[in-house]
């Protein structure tokens, strides 16, 4: 018996029957996660150890699950046996405990039910976003193309600012000041560092952080107050819609929730956009880029306007978005803990209380049982039948999670992504630098592509 086994004898016994890579003292299996993204390591373990696998972060046991049946149990059929633990500690200073993303039942339920994204009017509000966002995205693309005809740009930074601006317009009807964007990125960095730190308490935010945070939330409180004193029922922004609906929120609650929308969505939407634009810019995929541009041209040409219905009907655009998220899921890893108070049954196994479970869609999105040539970018694979058999939130395709805690912002995110791509490709394309590469990084719980550089080139 090795030192690791000797020290952790009783814990190991609790997981009898679940195999995994051999741990060693003192790091357990942590070294396996060095130099690679965690979801890639997890996918590797899944191939070697099957549908459930035990790994050790130091002396802390974690389970990796990798079969549609087990994901269904944890996220859907037995979801009440599991709760969210780790992101709460890391992200609470940034997105507050008011966020349904971090809360656990029973508080979670009332937060989710009363959130504007769950309201009956949400689909109508989303459908109105098309007109207010389209022009701003085109304007920004034009400006960037002028700038970038001389100088190559970092696509992730560029798209992140563009997404922040489009979220700003959806939420408040206007582009928020640069100083507010700076606070957003600063607080996001603190959250990202805390999330990836193995020693979260070491990342105690500074007084400076709390000062910035106060500015961030009070800015949104001010926007809410402005609408209260001068509401505009014809406006398409979220604050006016919430006000018109007679929201139950306190001012503070509304403001915090609105601020949370940015952290829930900007990074993940940026991830999808950069991924799709990068994939389409590759020489081997140029025919897909052409096909998308043609579809967009035909749609825009009818009356030079685009409607929500037309965006929804653009079938190739829809395929490009699905395929980008299948290959590089924007949220490839999150966690659940099993019940604090009882042993939970998971498949054939009995799981000791409070065991963290790593949830990653990466391996199943790449499973050759379901997907032919899984690593190949091929939007055409999404035929009508494939879409029907693999809807969002299903066994082999769940970029937005699945079950009762699946993403609340999915419909808005999809329309934002599609509209940005349609507006962008209606006038321009991206030409990557010769040396540019696509490297997956991890930021604020989101897979954030790094080092994609190149030029935005306007069509002739
Ligand atoms: C491409 C964009 C997005 C992706 C890929 C994405 C992905 C996800 C995933 C995987 C989850 C489930 C996490 C879990 O089960 O622990 C989730 C939850 C959530 N998302 Fe998103 N998201 C996106 C955009 C958005 C947007 C735009 C918003 C807000 C407007 C948002 C708000 C939320 C919230 C509040 C939850 C927590 C739901 C709950 O626990 O009840 N997301 N998202």
Q: What's this model, at a glance?
A:
Helix content is 52%, strand content 11%.
Number of strands: 12
Mean pLDDT: 93
**What's the CATH architecture?**
Orthogonal Bundle
Structural class: alpha+beta
- Kindly identify the CATH topology: Cytochrome p450
How many domains, in number, for the residues? 1
CATH superfamily: Cytochrome P450
The biggest sheet, with number of strands, parallel, antiparallel or mixed sense and barrel status, is: 5 strands, mixed
CATH class designation: Mainly Alpha
- Which stretches are low in confidence, meaning pLDDT under 50 for 5 or more residues running? none
Account of the protein in words:
With 460 residues, the chain is an alpha+beta fold. It has one domain (87-330, 378-458): Cytochrome P450 (Cytochrome p450, Orthogonal Bundle). 52% of the residues lie in helices and 11% in strands. It contains 18 helices and twelve strands. It has helices at residues 3-7, 9-14, 38-49, 68-77, 86-95, 107-114, 122-148, 155-172, 178-196, 207-229, 238-244, 251-281, 286-301, 308-313, 315-327, 362-365, 384-389, 410-427; strands at 52-57, 60-65, 82-83, 153-154, 334-338, 344-346, 349-351, 356-359, 428-432, 439-443, 446-450, 453-458. The chain has a five-stranded mixed sheet with strand order 1-2-8-5-3. Strands 4-12-9 form a three-stranded antiparallel sheet. Strand 10 (439-443) and strand 11 form a beta hairpin. Helix 12 (251-281) crosses helix 18 (410-427). It starts with a helix and ends with a strand. Protoporphyrin IX containing FE is lined by residues 100-101, 112, 117, 261, 264-265, 268-269, 272, 330-331, 334, 399-401, 405-409, 412-413.
């Amino acid at each position: 018996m090795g030192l690791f086994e000797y020290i952790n004898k009783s814990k190991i016994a609790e997981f009898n029957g679940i195999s995994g890579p051999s741990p060693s003292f003192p790091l357990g299996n942590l070294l396996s996660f060095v130099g690679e993204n965690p979801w890639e390591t997890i996918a590797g373990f899944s191939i070697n150890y099957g549908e459930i696998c035990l790994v050790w972060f130091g002396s802390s046991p974690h389970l990796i699950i990798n079969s549609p049946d087990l994901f269904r149990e944890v996220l859907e059929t037995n979801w009440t046996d599991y709760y969210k633990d780790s992101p709460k500690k890391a992200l609470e200073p940034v997105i507050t405990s008011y966020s349904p993303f971090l809360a656990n039942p029973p508080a979670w339920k009332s937060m989710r039910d009363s959130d504007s994204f769950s309201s009956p009017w949400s689909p109508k509000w989303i459908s109105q976003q098309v007109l207010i966002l389209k022009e701003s995205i085109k304007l920004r693309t034009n400006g960037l193309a002028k700038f970038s005809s001389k100088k190559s740009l970092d696509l992730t930074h560029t798209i992140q600012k563009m997404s922040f601006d489009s979220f700003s317009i959806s939420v408040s009807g206007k582009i928020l000041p640069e100083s507010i964007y700076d606070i957003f990125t600063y607080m996001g960095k603190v959250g990202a560092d805390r999330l990836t730190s193995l020693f979260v308490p070491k990342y105690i935010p500074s007084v400076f952080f709390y000062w910035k945070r106060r500015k961030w939330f009070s800015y949104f409180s001010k926007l809410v107050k402005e609408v209260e004193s001068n509401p505009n029922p014809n406006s398409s922004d979220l604050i006016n819609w919430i006000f018109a609906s007679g929201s139950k929120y306190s001012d503070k609650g509304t403001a915090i929730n609105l601020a949370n929308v940015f952290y829930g969505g900007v990074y993940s939407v940026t991830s999808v956009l950069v991924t799709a634009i990068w994939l389409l810019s590759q020489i081997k995929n140029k025919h897909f880029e052409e096909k998308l541009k043609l579809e967009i041209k035909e749609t825009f040409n009818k009356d030079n306007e685009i409607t929500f219905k037309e965006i929804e009907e653009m079938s190739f655009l829809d395929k490009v978005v699905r395929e980008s998220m299948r290959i590089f899921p924007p949220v490839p890893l999150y966690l659940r803990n099993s019940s604090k108070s009882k042993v939970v049954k998971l498949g054939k196994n009995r799981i000791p209380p409070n065991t963290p479970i790593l949830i990653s869609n990466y391996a199943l999105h790449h499973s050759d049982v379901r997907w032919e040539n899984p690593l190949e970018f091929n939007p055409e694979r999404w035929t009508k039948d494939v879409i029907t058999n693999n809807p969002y939130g299903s066994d082999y395709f769940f970029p937005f999670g699945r079950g009762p805690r699946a993403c609340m912002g999915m419909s808005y995110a999809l329309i934002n992504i599609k509209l940005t791509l349609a507006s962008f490709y209606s006038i321009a394309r991206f030409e990557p630098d010769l040396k540019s590469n696509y490297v997956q990084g991890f930021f604020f719980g989101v897979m954030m592509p790094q080092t994609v550089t190149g030029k935005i080139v306007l069509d002739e």
